[in-house]
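Write out the bound-state structure for nicotinamide-adenine-dinucleotide.
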Amino acid sequence: MSTFPFDTQSELNGNVLSRFYIDGQWVLPSARETVKLVAPSTGHAFARVPLADTGDVDKAVDAARTAFDTGPWPRMSGVERAACLRRMSTALASRMRTLSRIWTAEVGAPVWFADMFVPTATAMLDYYAELASTFAFQETRPTRAGEARIIRQPVGVTALIAPWNAQLPILSYKLGAALAAGCTVVIKAPPETPFDALVVAECAHEAGLPPGVLNVITADAERGAHLVAKREVDKVSFTGSTATGKVIAKMCADRMARVTLELGGKSAAIVLDDAELNPTLAALAPFTMPFSGQICFAQTRILVPRSREQEFVDAYSAVIGCLKVGDPWDVTTQIGPLASQRQLDRVLGYIETGRKEGARITTGGGRHPQFDAGFFVEPTVFAGVTSDMTIAREEIFGPVVSILAYDDIDHAVALANNTDFGLSGTVFSSDVERAYATARRIRAGNVSVNGLEMAPNVPFGGFKQSGLGREGGPEGLNAFLEDQAIYLPANAPRRTQA
Ligand code: NAD
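---
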């Protein structure tokens, strides 16, 4: 039986519970529509929050447009914006416990997992504050007739849209870069996870961000589409499914709005024939189904040499079979529930398809028998998987991993690349340079050797249908900038210095 020790009334501010943040103020939604939040660990509703209508979306966009066109933010120096970002980061740091608890309440992330990854938000704001204070927003190059000044202008009003699974960390990549660049933003929080972005708004307010620079509404897909379609929005930064990413890309193409897309994945872990079993399992297993597999970079296809297939299947299945599934609020729980009934139905559907298509279940395989409430599924491993099977091709977004056998290294690389996705990957070997050589052959945006790492100063993003553009690092800042070149003649009179 799971608990639910999260009382919204005592843990969250009244503004966060019932209002949107627009133009520097907490405003009542114009809509009457509300949505119920359901605790994944119990299946019971625990809050009801407002959803935006098109009028709320329009107000948020108007505020961001005015702040961009006439407000101080885009005109400040990088150093001035950095100071504000640092104050926001400090305000966020003081709310880490609340933000972690929100994550567990909204989507059932186990507390150890939420505690570990919530600090990503301050790390990203701190990183972009540092970058903003040193970045060359302007440079001069000589030309035949004089010089050109290249100005890295903020791209304008931006719509930031992130999914329910890891709302705060994903948002912080976008927000840090957008604000560092001098953009103004409208955050559209998803109906499943409304609180994270509204707490960020509290922090922006506390940090003294000028009115209209950051606006937060909670809205469904239809109102999200209304936001994306608005001509006052210059750029959309979207993280979510590949299907929605394609819809958004088409809408943006209509008016050439800039767009960055972080989409789905079906990442492969290649275990080379010289990889030692136990260190490989220790480094790989946590990334195969982190947060019940509801993370885009989960290593959901494990490729093992045919000669070691049985050894690996037995050992990996034993590790997964021993994971403690349970109440996400219990610090000893390793795997919590899925986020929603929709997720549960989806994952059980894929398990059934895997079975029908002839893959062999070595552990798990259904709804968790220990829980009669909540959205618990057994961590599941399929062996004997071939790359034409649905479970090897489609993103399941649940604790379901496929093991595929390969004959030689070329076959392993071909299997890894035999997917429409290209987000992440890992290679395991006792020879790091051999692993590196293999990593370079994987058509994916991020590949790690003997583990999995992500760092604020390193670009993250996908090849192929895993996305377009990059977040993180200077590449992530560039995604919120437009290069403007201004040519000046050499011998014209000047009264002021550049
Ligand atoms: P989703 O595409 O259904 O929704 C994502 C967000 O888009 C939500 O806020 C939703 O309200 C909004 N939305 C939906 N339709 C829209 C439209 N037409 N216009 C504007 N907004 C719209 O995805 P999801 O189910 O919430 O999230 C899971 C997916 O996200 C998985 O595919 C996962 O791989 C992907 N993801 C990718 C990354 C990455 O960095 N590449 C990170 C996390 C999750």
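---
The chain has two domains: 8-263+462-484, 268-449.
The longest helix spans residues 54-70.
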